[in-house]
Design a protein that fits this description.
The complex is a heterodimer of chains A (about 325) and B (about 240).
Chain A lengths: L1 H8 L3 E12 L2 E12 L3 E5 L6 H8 L7 E6 L8 H5 L2 E4 L11 H11 L6 H7 L15 H12 L6 E5 L7 H16 L3 E6 L2 H7 L2 E6 L2 E6 L1 H6 L5 E6 L14 E7 L2 E6 L3 H11 L8 E3 L3 H9 L10
Parallel strand pairs in A: 3-7, 3-8, 5-6, 6-7
Antiparallel strand pairs in A: 1-2, 1-4, 8-9, 10-12, 10-13, 11-12
Chain B lengths: L1 H13 L2 H22 L3 E2 L5 E2 H32 L1 H7 L4 H30 L8 H25 L3 H21 L8 H7 L3 H14 L5 H22 L3
Antiparallel strand pairs in B: 1-2
Helix pairs in contact in B: 1-5, 2-3, 2-5, 3-5, 3-6, 3-7, 3-9, 5-6, 6-9, 6-10, 9-10
The chains are: A alpha/beta (about 325), B mainly alpha (about 240).
Amino acid sequence: MKGERHMLAAMDNVITVDAISKSYGQAVAVEDVSFAVRRGEIFGMLGPNGAGKTTTVECIQGLRRPDRGSIDVLGIDPAADPDLLRRRIGSQLQSSSLPDRLHVWEAVHLFSRLHGDPADVDRVLDTWDLSKLRRKPFAALSGGQQQRLFLALALLGQPEIVVLDELTSSLDPNARRDTWDLVKAVRDRGATVILVTHFMEEAEALCDRVAIVDQGRVVAIDTPIALTTGLGTEVRITFTSDGHDPHFLTQVPGVRSVGVEAEMVTVVGGPEAGIRVAGALSERGFIPIDYRIHHPSLDDVFVSLTGRALTGKDAA
Amino acid sequence: MSRGITWIEIKLLAREPLTLVVGLAFPVVLMLLLLVSFGSEPDAAFDGVGGTDFYVPSYLGAAIAVMGFLGVPTHIAAYRHSGVLRRFRAAGVSAGSIMISQLAVTAVLASFGGMVMIALAYFGFELRAPVAPWAVVTGFALGLLAFSAIGVLLGSVLPSARAAQGTGLLLFFGTFFLVGGGPPPAILPDSLNTAVEFTPIAQLADAIRSPWVGLGWDTTALVALAAITVVAAVLAQWRLSRI
Protein backbone atom coordinates (compact mmCIF):
# COMPACT_ATOMS: atom_id res chain seq x y z
CA MET A 1 0.00 0.00 0.00
CA LYS A 2 2.71 2.41 1.04
CA GLY A 3 4.92 1.32 -1.87
CA GLU A 4 2.07 1.84 -4.32
CA ARG A 5 1.49 5.29 -3.01
CA HIS A 6 5.12 6.16 -3.46
CA MET A 7 5.29 4.93 -7.03
CA LEU A 8 2.22 6.93 -7.90
CA ALA A 9 3.47 9.92 -5.99
CA ALA A 10 6.83 10.10 -7.69
CA MET A 11 5.19 11.56 -10.76
CA ASP A 12 2.85 13.79 -8.87
CA ASN A 13 4.40 16.69 -6.99
CA VAL A 14 1.87 18.94 -5.29
CA ILE A 15 4.45 21.45 -4.10
CA THR A 16 7.64 22.49 -5.85
CA VAL A 17 9.93 24.90 -4.08
CA ASP A 18 12.67 26.19 -6.38
CA ALA A 19 15.69 27.96 -4.93
CA ILE A 20 13.88 30.34 -2.59
CA SER A 21 15.67 32.79 -0.32
CA LYS A 22 14.25 35.12 2.28
CA SER A 23 15.90 37.63 4.60
CA TYR A 24 14.52 39.83 7.33
CA GLY A 25 16.72 42.89 7.18
CA GLN A 26 20.24 41.61 7.69
CA ALA A 27 19.18 38.20 8.99
CA VAL A 28 19.04 35.46 6.39
CA ALA A 29 16.15 33.14 7.28
CA VAL A 30 16.10 30.90 4.20
CA GLU A 31 18.83 30.51 1.64
CA ASP A 32 18.49 28.74 -1.70
CA VAL A 33 16.00 26.12 -0.52
CA SER A 34 14.57 23.65 -3.02
CA PHE A 35 12.44 20.56 -2.58
CA ALA A 36 9.31 18.90 -3.88
CA VAL A 37 6.45 17.37 -1.93
CA ARG A 38 4.58 14.40 -3.41
CA ARG A 39 0.86 13.88 -3.30
CA GLY A 40 -0.31 11.88 -0.31
CA GLU A 41 2.90 11.83 1.69
CA ILE A 42 3.77 13.21 5.10
CA PHE A 43 6.72 15.44 4.33
CA GLY A 44 8.76 16.48 7.34
CA MET A 45 10.82 19.59 7.81
CA LEU A 46 13.18 18.88 10.66
CA GLY A 47 15.60 21.30 12.22
CA PRO A 48 16.32 23.39 15.30
CA ASN A 49 14.37 26.53 16.14
CA GLY A 50 15.36 29.37 13.88
CA ALA A 51 16.47 27.07 11.04
CA GLY A 52 14.06 28.69 8.60
CA LYS A 53 11.35 26.00 8.59
CA THR A 54 8.50 28.31 9.50
CA THR A 55 9.54 30.98 7.00
CA THR A 56 9.62 28.31 4.29
CA VAL A 57 6.14 27.01 5.00
CA GLU A 58 4.81 30.55 5.34
CA CYS A 59 6.10 31.23 1.82
CA ILE A 60 4.36 28.06 0.65
CA GLN A 61 1.10 29.31 2.15
CA GLY A 62 1.44 32.75 0.59
CA LEU A 63 1.78 34.46 3.96
CA ARG A 64 5.25 35.67 2.99
CA ARG A 65 6.85 36.41 -0.32
CA PRO A 66 10.31 34.94 -0.96
CA ASP A 67 12.98 37.46 -2.00
CA ARG A 68 14.21 35.11 -4.73
CA GLY A 69 13.17 31.81 -6.25
CA SER A 70 9.74 30.44 -7.07
CA ILE A 71 7.10 28.20 -5.53
CA ASP A 72 4.39 26.19 -7.21
CA VAL A 73 1.59 24.80 -5.06
CA LEU A 74 -1.08 22.85 -6.97
CA GLY A 75 -0.27 24.93 -10.02
CA ILE A 76 -0.69 28.19 -8.09
CA ASP A 77 1.95 30.79 -7.28
CA PRO A 78 1.24 31.44 -3.58
CA ALA A 79 2.77 34.91 -3.58
CA ALA A 80 0.63 36.02 -6.52
CA ASP A 81 -2.61 34.30 -5.57
CA PRO A 82 -2.86 33.62 -1.83
CA ASP A 83 -6.65 33.80 -1.82
CA LEU A 84 -6.99 31.14 -4.50
CA LEU A 85 -4.64 28.88 -2.58
CA ARG A 86 -6.29 29.39 0.79
CA ARG A 87 -9.23 27.16 -0.05
CA ARG A 88 -6.96 24.28 -0.98
CA ILE A 89 -4.43 24.44 1.83
CA GLY A 90 -5.23 24.00 5.50
CA SER A 91 -2.84 25.10 8.18
CA GLN A 92 -1.93 24.98 11.80
CA LEU A 93 0.41 27.91 12.26
CA GLN A 94 3.12 27.98 14.84
CA SER A 95 2.37 30.14 17.89
CA SER A 96 -1.09 31.07 16.81
CA SER A 97 -4.15 30.97 18.94
CA LEU A 98 -7.88 31.63 19.25
CA PRO A 99 -9.72 34.16 21.41
CA ASP A 100 -9.83 32.86 25.00
CA ARG A 101 -13.58 33.08 25.35
CA LEU A 102 -14.47 31.69 21.94
CA HIS A 103 -16.44 28.46 22.33
CA VAL A 104 -15.35 25.35 20.48
CA TRP A 105 -18.44 25.16 18.28
CA GLU A 106 -18.16 28.87 17.46
CA ALA A 107 -14.59 28.39 16.25
CA VAL A 108 -15.68 25.60 13.91
CA HIS A 109 -18.65 27.63 12.70
CA LEU A 110 -16.59 30.80 12.15
CA PHE A 111 -13.71 29.15 10.34
CA SER A 112 -15.92 27.09 8.09
CA ARG A 113 -17.66 30.31 7.07
CA LEU A 114 -14.29 31.95 6.46
CA HIS A 115 -13.46 29.07 4.13
CA GLY A 116 -16.57 29.95 2.19
CA ASP A 117 -17.86 26.45 2.74
CA PRO A 118 -20.10 26.30 5.82
CA ALA A 119 -19.59 22.89 7.38
CA ASP A 120 -21.96 20.78 9.41
CA VAL A 121 -20.59 21.86 12.78
CA ASP A 122 -21.95 18.83 14.63
CA ARG A 123 -20.35 16.41 12.23
CA VAL A 124 -16.96 18.13 12.45
CA LEU A 125 -17.13 18.11 16.26
CA ASP A 126 -18.07 14.43 16.17
CA THR A 127 -15.22 13.52 13.84
CA TRP A 128 -12.64 15.10 16.09
CA ASP A 129 -14.16 13.91 19.31
CA LEU A 130 -14.96 17.47 20.37
CA SER A 131 -18.73 17.13 20.84
CA LYS A 132 -18.54 17.09 24.61
CA LEU A 133 -16.43 20.25 24.54
CA ARG A 134 -18.64 22.23 22.18
CA ARG A 135 -19.60 24.89 24.72
CA LYS A 136 -16.19 25.13 26.34
CA PRO A 137 -14.22 28.35 25.89
CA PHE A 138 -10.93 27.90 24.06
CA ALA A 139 -8.83 28.89 27.09
CA ALA A 140 -10.38 26.11 29.18
CA LEU A 141 -9.20 23.35 26.81
CA SER A 142 -6.15 21.24 27.57
CA GLY A 143 -3.14 21.47 25.26
CA GLY A 144 -4.14 18.25 23.51
CA GLN A 145 -7.73 19.39 23.09
CA GLN A 146 -6.57 22.70 21.63
CA GLN A 147 -4.42 20.88 19.09
CA ARG A 148 -7.35 18.65 18.20
CA LEU A 149 -9.45 21.73 17.57
CA PHE A 150 -6.66 23.29 15.49
CA LEU A 151 -6.46 20.13 13.40
CA ALA A 152 -10.24 20.15 12.94
CA LEU A 153 -10.03 23.78 11.77
CA ALA A 154 -7.08 23.07 9.47
CA LEU A 155 -9.05 20.25 7.86
CA LEU A 156 -12.23 22.26 7.24
CA GLY A 157 -13.20 22.29 3.60
CA GLN A 158 -11.13 19.14 2.89
CA PRO A 159 -7.92 20.86 1.79
CA GLU A 160 -5.57 18.91 -0.45
CA ILE A 161 -2.53 20.09 1.51
CA VAL A 162 -2.26 20.52 5.26
CA VAL A 163 0.62 22.41 6.86
CA LEU A 164 1.24 21.55 10.51
CA ASP A 165 3.86 23.79 12.10
CA GLU A 166 5.14 22.61 15.49
CA LEU A 167 1.84 20.98 16.22
CA THR A 168 3.04 19.07 19.26
CA SER A 169 5.65 21.40 20.75
CA SER A 170 3.50 22.44 23.66
CA LEU A 171 2.23 18.95 24.48
CA ASP A 172 3.34 16.37 27.02
CA PRO A 173 4.60 13.06 25.59
CA ASN A 174 1.27 11.24 25.92
CA ALA A 175 -0.75 13.94 24.20
CA ARG A 176 1.98 14.11 21.57
CA ARG A 177 1.55 10.45 20.67
CA ASP A 178 -2.22 10.86 20.48
CA THR A 179 -1.70 13.77 18.12
CA TRP A 180 0.56 11.63 15.93
CA ASP A 181 -2.34 9.26 15.40
CA LEU A 182 -4.46 12.20 14.32
CA VAL A 183 -1.82 13.31 11.83
CA LYS A 184 -1.75 9.82 10.33
CA ALA A 185 -5.53 9.94 10.13
CA VAL A 186 -5.27 13.23 8.21
CA ARG A 187 -2.97 11.64 5.66
CA ASP A 188 -5.15 8.55 5.39
CA ARG A 189 -8.04 10.78 4.34
CA GLY A 190 -5.96 11.65 1.30
CA ALA A 191 -4.36 14.95 2.27
CA THR A 192 -0.71 15.71 1.72
CA VAL A 193 0.86 16.79 4.99
CA ILE A 194 3.83 19.08 5.57
CA LEU A 195 4.95 18.56 9.12
CA VAL A 196 7.33 21.11 10.62
CA THR A 197 9.03 19.89 13.75
CA HIS A 198 12.17 20.06 15.81
CA PHE A 199 11.47 16.64 17.34
CA MET A 200 13.59 14.00 15.67
CA GLU A 201 11.41 11.28 17.14
CA GLU A 202 8.30 12.82 15.63
CA ALA A 203 9.82 13.03 12.17
CA GLU A 204 10.95 9.40 12.39
CA ALA A 205 7.58 8.17 13.56
CA LEU A 206 5.41 10.05 11.08
CA CYS A 207 7.20 11.17 7.96
CA ASP A 208 7.51 9.41 4.65
CA ARG A 209 10.30 11.79 3.72
CA VAL A 210 12.21 14.35 5.73
CA ALA A 211 14.05 17.51 4.75
CA ILE A 212 16.71 18.32 7.31
CA VAL A 213 17.02 22.08 7.61
CA ASP A 214 19.81 23.99 9.28
CA GLN A 215 20.67 27.69 9.22
CA GLY A 216 18.31 28.43 6.37
CA ARG A 217 19.47 25.59 4.13
CA VAL A 218 18.22 22.11 3.34
CA VAL A 219 21.12 19.81 4.15
CA ALA A 220 19.47 16.49 3.23
CA ILE A 221 16.18 15.11 1.95
CA ASP A 222 15.23 11.44 2.03
CA THR A 223 13.18 8.82 3.84
CA PRO A 224 14.06 8.50 7.54
CA ILE A 225 15.39 4.98 6.88
CA ALA A 226 17.60 6.06 4.00
CA LEU A 227 18.92 8.99 6.02
CA THR A 228 19.84 6.86 9.01
CA THR A 229 21.25 3.92 7.04
CA GLY A 230 23.20 6.45 4.99
CA LEU A 231 25.40 6.73 8.05
CA GLY A 232 26.25 3.02 7.79
CA THR A 233 24.55 0.21 9.58
CA GLU A 234 26.69 0.36 12.67
CA VAL A 235 25.01 -0.10 16.02
CA ARG A 236 26.23 0.95 19.43
CA ILE A 237 25.68 -1.27 22.48
CA THR A 238 25.92 0.07 26.01
CA PHE A 239 25.72 -1.54 29.46
CA THR A 240 27.29 -1.21 32.90
CA SER A 241 30.34 -3.46 33.38
CA ASP A 242 29.52 -4.18 37.03
CA GLY A 243 33.11 -5.30 37.69
CA HIS A 244 33.38 -7.59 34.66
CA ASP A 245 36.15 -7.10 32.13
CA PRO A 246 34.33 -6.82 28.79
CA HIS A 247 37.36 -6.92 26.52
CA PHE A 248 36.77 -10.56 25.60
CA LEU A 249 33.89 -9.16 23.48
CA THR A 250 36.41 -8.08 20.80
CA GLN A 251 36.49 -11.79 19.83
CA VAL A 252 32.73 -11.82 19.13
CA PRO A 253 31.98 -11.81 15.37
CA GLY A 254 30.78 -8.41 14.13
CA VAL A 255 32.26 -6.40 16.98
CA ARG A 256 34.62 -3.65 15.88
CA SER A 257 35.53 -1.94 19.13
CA VAL A 258 34.99 -2.18 22.87
CA GLY A 259 35.49 0.75 25.21
CA VAL A 260 34.99 1.26 28.92
CA GLU A 261 34.50 4.60 30.54
CA ALA A 262 33.57 4.90 34.21
CA GLU A 263 31.91 1.47 34.39
CA MET A 264 29.95 2.15 31.17
CA VAL A 265 30.85 -0.24 28.36
CA THR A 266 30.33 0.84 24.77
CA VAL A 267 30.56 -1.79 22.02
CA VAL A 268 30.42 -0.73 18.38
CA GLY A 269 29.80 -3.22 15.61
CA GLY A 270 27.71 -4.38 12.67
CA PRO A 271 23.95 -5.00 12.96
CA GLU A 272 24.47 -8.65 14.06
CA ALA A 273 26.63 -7.57 17.02
CA GLY A 274 23.51 -6.59 18.95
CA ILE A 275 22.44 -10.22 19.29
CA ARG A 276 25.88 -11.86 19.40
CA VAL A 277 27.22 -9.67 22.21
CA ALA A 278 24.11 -10.43 24.27
CA GLY A 279 24.67 -14.14 23.67
CA ALA A 280 28.36 -13.97 24.63
CA LEU A 281 27.56 -12.11 27.86
CA SER A 282 24.86 -14.50 28.95
CA GLU A 283 27.14 -17.49 28.21
CA ARG A 284 29.51 -16.07 30.81
CA GLY A 285 26.64 -15.72 33.22
CA PHE A 286 26.67 -11.92 33.07
CA ILE A 287 23.24 -10.43 32.48
CA PRO A 288 23.50 -6.61 32.58
CA ILE A 289 20.12 -5.04 33.35
CA ASP A 290 20.78 -1.89 31.35
CA TYR A 291 21.80 -3.59 28.09
CA ARG A 292 20.84 -1.26 25.21
CA ILE A 293 21.26 -1.35 21.45
CA HIS A 294 21.36 2.07 19.79
CA HIS A 295 20.57 2.33 16.10
CA PRO A 296 21.47 5.54 14.32
CA SER A 297 18.65 8.09 14.62
CA LEU A 298 17.82 11.23 12.68
CA ASP A 299 19.49 12.99 15.57
CA ASP A 300 22.77 11.29 14.61
CA VAL A 301 22.13 12.19 11.00
CA PHE A 302 21.76 15.81 12.02
CA VAL A 303 24.97 15.74 14.02
CA SER A 304 26.89 14.13 11.18
CA LEU A 305 25.55 16.65 8.65
CA THR A 306 25.93 19.82 10.70
CA GLY A 307 28.41 18.97 13.42
CA ARG A 308 25.89 20.08 16.05
CA ALA A 309 23.22 18.33 18.06
CA LEU A 310 19.63 18.92 17.01
CA THR A 311 18.06 18.76 20.42
CA GLY A 312 20.86 20.21 22.49
CA LYS A 313 20.25 23.68 21.12
CA ASP A 314 16.81 24.26 22.52
CA ALA A 315 15.23 22.84 25.58
CA ALA A 316 11.64 22.91 24.29
CA MET B 1 -16.70 37.44 5.54
CA SER B 2 -16.63 40.44 7.87
CA ARG B 3 -20.10 39.46 9.03
CA GLY B 4 -18.93 36.23 10.63
CA ILE B 5 -16.05 37.84 12.42
CA THR B 6 -18.13 40.87 13.46
CA TRP B 7 -20.83 38.75 15.02
CA ILE B 8 -18.23 36.70 16.91
CA GLU B 9 -16.54 39.86 18.15
CA ILE B 10 -19.82 41.23 19.47
CA LYS B 11 -20.50 37.94 21.26
CA LEU B 12 -17.00 37.97 22.74
CA LEU B 13 -17.51 41.55 23.90
CA ALA B 14 -20.52 40.43 25.90
CA ARG B 15 -18.24 37.90 27.65
CA GLU B 16 -15.63 40.48 28.66
CA PRO B 17 -16.77 41.94 31.96
CA LEU B 18 -13.75 44.25 32.22
CA THR B 19 -14.36 45.87 28.84
CA LEU B 20 -18.01 46.31 29.68
CA VAL B 21 -17.16 48.02 32.97
CA VAL B 22 -14.49 50.27 31.49
CA GLY B 23 -16.28 50.99 28.24
CA LEU B 24 -19.79 51.34 29.57
CA ALA B 25 -20.13 51.91 33.28
CA PHE B 26 -17.11 54.13 33.74
CA PRO B 27 -18.10 57.03 31.42
CA VAL B 28 -21.69 56.89 32.67
CA VAL B 29 -20.69 57.11 36.33
CA LEU B 30 -18.21 59.90 35.67
CA MET B 31 -20.82 61.86 33.76
CA LEU B 32 -23.33 61.47 36.58
CA LEU B 33 -20.80 62.86 39.06
CA LEU B 34 -20.35 65.99 36.95
CA LEU B 35 -24.07 66.43 36.34
CA VAL B 36 -24.71 66.25 40.07
CA SER B 37 -21.97 68.83 40.71
CA PHE B 38 -22.83 71.42 38.06
CA GLY B 39 -26.61 71.24 37.52
CA SER B 40 -28.46 72.40 34.44
CA GLU B 41 -28.71 76.20 34.90
CA PRO B 42 -27.03 78.29 32.18
CA ASP B 43 -23.54 79.08 33.40
CA ALA B 44 -20.89 81.50 32.18
CA ALA B 45 -18.26 78.83 32.78
CA PHE B 46 -19.82 76.88 29.89
CA ASP B 47 -20.34 79.87 27.59
CA GLY B 48 -23.86 80.29 28.84
CA VAL B 49 -24.84 76.66 28.37
CA GLY B 50 -26.11 74.54 31.29
CA GLY B 51 -23.67 72.07 32.86
CA THR B 52 -25.87 69.15 31.83
CA ASP B 53 -26.07 70.28 28.22
CA PHE B 54 -22.32 70.79 28.16
CA TYR B 55 -21.28 67.52 29.75
CA VAL B 56 -23.69 65.03 28.19
CA PRO B 57 -22.42 65.57 24.62
CA SER B 58 -18.85 65.49 25.94
CA TYR B 59 -19.46 62.13 27.53
CA LEU B 60 -21.12 60.75 24.42
CA GLY B 61 -17.69 61.41 22.96
CA ALA B 62 -16.05 59.74 25.96
CA ALA B 63 -18.04 56.56 25.35
CA ILE B 64 -16.44 56.44 21.91
CA ALA B 65 -12.98 57.58 22.93
CA VAL B 66 -12.63 55.13 25.81
CA MET B 67 -13.13 52.29 23.34
CA GLY B 68 -10.86 53.83 20.70
CA PHE B 69 -8.05 54.56 23.13
CA LEU B 70 -8.46 51.67 25.55
CA GLY B 71 -10.94 48.92 24.68
CA VAL B 72 -10.05 48.26 21.05
CA PRO B 73 -6.24 48.64 21.34
CA THR B 74 -6.08 46.32 24.36
CA HIS B 75 -8.20 43.74 22.55
CA ILE B 76 -6.26 43.90 19.28
CA ALA B 77 -2.84 43.95 20.99
CA ALA B 78 -3.80 40.82 22.95
CA TYR B 79 -4.93 39.18 19.69
CA ARG B 80 -1.67 40.07 18.04
CA HIS B 81 0.45 38.94 20.96
CA SER B 82 -1.23 35.56 21.37
CA GLY B 83 -1.33 34.81 17.64
CA VAL B 84 -5.07 35.15 17.08
CA LEU B 85 -4.44 37.72 14.35
CA ARG B 86 -2.02 35.32 12.62
CA ARG B 87 -4.63 32.61 12.60
CA PHE B 88 -7.35 34.97 11.34
CA ARG B 89 -5.08 36.23 8.62
CA ALA B 90 -4.11 32.73 7.51
CA ALA B 91 -7.83 31.95 7.28
CA GLY B 92 -8.27 34.89 4.94
CA VAL B 93 -9.67 37.50 7.33
CA SER B 94 -8.65 40.83 5.79
CA ALA B 95 -7.42 43.85 7.70
CA GLY B 96 -10.61 45.56 6.56
CA SER B 97 -12.76 42.88 8.17
CA ILE B 98 -10.91 43.29 11.43
CA MET B 99 -11.45 47.04 11.36
CA ILE B 100 -15.13 46.62 10.53
CA SER B 101 -15.56 44.21 13.43
CA GLN B 102 -13.97 46.68 15.83
CA LEU B 103 -16.08 49.51 14.43
CA ALA B 104 -19.15 47.38 15.14
CA VAL B 105 -18.03 46.56 18.67
CA THR B 106 -17.30 50.23 19.40
CA ALA B 107 -20.61 51.27 17.86
CA VAL B 108 -22.59 48.76 19.91
CA LEU B 109 -20.95 49.69 23.19
CA ALA B 110 -20.83 53.47 22.65
CA SER B 111 -24.40 53.63 21.35
CA PHE B 112 -25.72 51.65 24.25
CA GLY B 113 -23.69 53.73 26.71
CA GLY B 114 -24.83 56.92 24.95
CA MET B 115 -28.49 55.96 25.20
CA VAL B 116 -28.13 55.24 28.90
CA MET B 117 -26.45 58.63 29.41
CA ILE B 118 -29.11 60.51 27.47
CA ALA B 119 -31.92 58.73 29.28
CA LEU B 120 -30.41 59.39 32.72
CA ALA B 121 -29.67 63.05 31.92
CA TYR B 122 -33.06 63.62 30.32
CA PHE B 123 -35.10 62.18 33.16
CA GLY B 124 -32.84 63.17 36.04
CA PHE B 125 -30.99 66.34 35.04
CA GLU B 126 -33.20 68.33 32.66
CA LEU B 127 -31.16 67.64 29.54
CA ARG B 128 -32.38 69.72 26.61
CA ALA B 129 -32.91 68.05 23.24
CA PRO B 130 -30.12 68.68 20.74
CA VAL B 131 -30.61 71.74 18.56
CA ALA B 132 -29.38 69.97 15.40
CA PRO B 133 -29.93 66.23 16.00
CA TRP B 134 -28.70 65.06 12.57
CA ALA B 135 -25.47 66.95 13.00
CA VAL B 136 -25.05 65.28 16.39
CA VAL B 137 -25.64 61.86 14.85
CA THR B 138 -23.16 62.66 12.08
CA GLY B 139 -20.54 63.72 14.59
CA PHE B 140 -21.14 60.59 16.65
CA ALA B 141 -20.89 58.35 13.57
CA LEU B 142 -17.70 59.96 12.27
CA GLY B 143 -16.30 59.71 15.79
CA LEU B 144 -16.98 55.97 15.77
CA LEU B 145 -15.16 55.60 12.46
CA ALA B 146 -12.17 57.71 13.52
CA PHE B 147 -11.72 56.17 16.96
CA SER B 148 -12.23 52.55 15.95
CA ALA B 149 -9.55 53.10 13.30
CA ILE B 150 -7.27 54.73 15.89
CA GLY B 151 -7.97 51.78 18.19
CA VAL B 152 -7.02 49.15 15.62
CA LEU B 153 -3.93 51.14 14.68
CA LEU B 154 -2.79 51.41 18.31
CA GLY B 155 -3.49 47.71 18.87
CA SER B 156 -1.51 46.76 15.76
CA VAL B 157 1.50 48.78 16.89
CA LEU B 158 1.68 48.26 20.65
CA PRO B 159 3.48 45.06 21.65
CA SER B 160 1.14 43.73 24.32
CA ALA B 161 -2.23 44.17 25.96
CA ARG B 162 -0.52 45.65 28.98
CA ALA B 163 1.32 48.24 26.89
CA ALA B 164 -1.94 49.08 25.14
CA GLN B 165 -3.68 49.53 28.47
CA GLY B 166 -1.03 51.90 29.78
CA THR B 167 -0.90 53.91 26.59
CA GLY B 168 -4.67 54.04 26.39
CA LEU B 169 -5.10 55.28 29.95
CA LEU B 170 -2.51 57.97 29.31
CA LEU B 171 -4.12 59.09 26.05
CA PHE B 172 -7.62 59.07 27.45
CA PHE B 173 -7.05 60.76 30.79
CA GLY B 174 -4.29 62.96 29.40
CA THR B 175 -6.68 64.61 26.99
CA PHE B 176 -10.32 63.97 27.76
CA PHE B 177 -10.42 65.93 31.02
CA LEU B 178 -9.00 68.94 29.18
CA VAL B 179 -11.54 69.01 26.36
CA GLY B 180 -14.77 69.20 28.32
CA GLY B 181 -14.73 65.99 30.28
CA GLY B 182 -13.43 67.50 33.51
CA PRO B 183 -13.31 71.09 34.74
CA PRO B 184 -15.13 73.72 32.67
CA PRO B 185 -12.72 74.87 29.92
CA ALA B 186 -13.37 78.51 30.95
CA ILE B 187 -11.38 78.01 34.16
CA LEU B 188 -8.43 76.42 32.33
CA PRO B 189 -5.63 78.60 30.86
CA ASP B 190 -6.29 79.78 27.31
CA SER B 191 -3.02 78.37 26.04
CA LEU B 192 -4.04 74.91 27.27
CA ASN B 193 -7.45 75.20 25.66
CA THR B 194 -5.80 76.14 22.38
CA ALA B 195 -3.29 73.30 22.60
CA VAL B 196 -5.83 70.55 23.24
CA GLU B 197 -7.89 71.72 20.24
CA PHE B 198 -5.37 69.81 18.13
CA THR B 199 -6.14 66.44 19.72
CA PRO B 200 -8.51 63.96 18.08
CA ILE B 201 -10.60 63.81 21.23
CA ALA B 202 -11.22 67.59 21.13
CA GLN B 203 -12.49 67.28 17.56
CA LEU B 204 -14.72 64.42 18.64
CA ALA B 205 -16.17 66.42 21.56
CA ASP B 206 -16.69 69.49 19.34
CA ALA B 207 -18.33 67.50 16.56
CA ILE B 208 -20.98 66.25 18.98
CA ARG B 209 -21.27 69.20 21.38
CA SER B 210 -21.46 72.15 18.95
CA PRO B 211 -24.64 71.05 17.17
CA TRP B 212 -26.17 69.84 20.44
CA VAL B 213 -25.94 73.24 22.16
CA GLY B 214 -26.91 75.25 19.07
CA LEU B 215 -23.58 76.24 17.54
CA GLY B 216 -24.49 74.42 14.31
CA TRP B 217 -22.53 71.86 12.28
CA ASP B 218 -18.87 71.90 13.26
CA THR B 219 -17.42 71.37 9.81
CA THR B 220 -13.80 71.64 10.95
CA ALA B 221 -14.28 68.88 13.50
CA LEU B 222 -16.12 66.65 11.04
CA VAL B 223 -13.44 67.06 8.41
CA ALA B 224 -10.75 66.40 11.00
CA LEU B 225 -12.48 63.18 12.11
CA ALA B 226 -12.85 62.03 8.52
CA ALA B 227 -9.16 62.70 7.88
CA ILE B 228 -8.19 60.83 11.06
CA THR B 229 -10.30 57.90 9.91
CA VAL B 230 -8.57 57.69 6.56
CA VAL B 231 -5.03 58.08 7.89
CA ALA B 232 -5.49 55.65 10.81
CA ALA B 233 -7.25 53.08 8.65
CA VAL B 234 -4.57 53.16 5.97
CA LEU B 235 -1.78 52.81 8.54
CA ALA B 236 -3.62 50.03 10.39
CA GLN B 237 -4.22 48.17 7.13
CA TRP B 238 -0.52 48.42 6.35
CA ARG B 239 0.46 47.15 9.80
CA LEU B 240 -2.07 44.32 9.92
CA SER B 241 -1.05 42.96 6.54
CA ARG B 242 2.45 42.43 7.93
CA ILE B 243 1.56 40.32 10.93
